[in-house]
Amino acid sequence: MKRNTITLILVALIAGLMAPAAFADDNDILRRIDKKLLPESYESYRQLIDEYPDGKKKEFTVYSIKKGSEKTATLFLAPTSEKGRTTLRLGENMWLLIPNVGKPVRITSLQSITGGVFNNADIMQLEYATEYNVEQSAKDGDGIMLQLRAKNKTVAYDSLKMWATKNDIVTKVECYSAGGMLIKTLEFKNIKDFGNGIVRPAVIETYSPLYKGYKSSMIYGQITPRTFKDEAFTLNFMSQIGSLRK
């Protein structure tokens, strides 16, 4: 009886030691995927295109900067009606500044400053490992599928399913609510070499079963590694983000 008890204790200890290692390995995969998708510090130019059921489109051109895993800011360059608008994200805190209106106002991750399928969390994306932990992983052909769970309730989606290639390039993400309802799908397409070792999808398309006939696309024209001072990611600097453009 005593021998059986000791054996069970040893098995439990070994399982306890092994489980964290496997969990850590999966999160290392997620961090590698992040590194391919979002360099540590960079500037980029993107087009955001919202398509509506009646066939109409609305296009935006934006300049964005990022530093580390939780700091990102965006300046709208076009259309004229949106020109000069800026957003700032520090972790889960987000602000919008409209020129000549007043002080920056708080916005939420589930809102959309463009009015399309992309919400603010999608447009001002942080690294996935900042907001999610990997719960499960499974092989998917030559690639992998990761099941992610939000670290807290302030994150836009409760859980994600992510597919990536064997080279750690994300190909698709499904976003789910706390009740398990599919909110939207993000498809990552057109692998492009942007130079400076950045090879990643140039196009992200999203659609949602909640918005029939709507579709939004994000097209990266340029991604360039660049360092920024912390000052660039403050409320006081929001109106000056355009001065960083070269």
**What's the end-to-end separation, in Å?**
75 Å
> Per CATH, what is the topology?
outer membrane lipoprotein receptor (LolB), chain A
The CATH superfamily turns out to be: Lipoprotein localisation LolA/LolB/LppX
Rounded mean pLDDT is 89
- Biggest sheet strand order reads 6-5-4-3-2-1-13-12-11-10-9-8-7
> How many structural units, i.e. domains?
1
**What is the CATH architecture assignment?**
Clam
- What's the helix-strand series? HEEEEEEHHEEEEEEE
**What low-confidence regions span 5 or more consecutive residues with pLDDT below 50?**
5-24
Question: What do these coordinates show?
Answer:
The protein is 18% helix and 44% strand. The protein is of the alpha+beta class and 246 residues long. It has one domain: Lipoprotein localisation LolA/LolB/LppX (outer membrane lipoprotein receptor (LolB), chain A). About 8% of the residues have low confidence.
Q: Topology, please?
A:
Elements: H1 2-37, E1 41-51, E2 57-67, E3 71-78, E4 86-90, E5 93-97, E6 105-107, H2 120-123, H3 128-131, E7 132-140, E8 143-150, E9 159-164, E10 170-176, E11 182-195, E12 198-207, E13 215-225
Antiparallel strand pairs: 1-2, 1-13, 2-3, 3-4, 4-5, 5-6, 7-8, 8-9, 9-10, 10-11, 11-12, 12-13
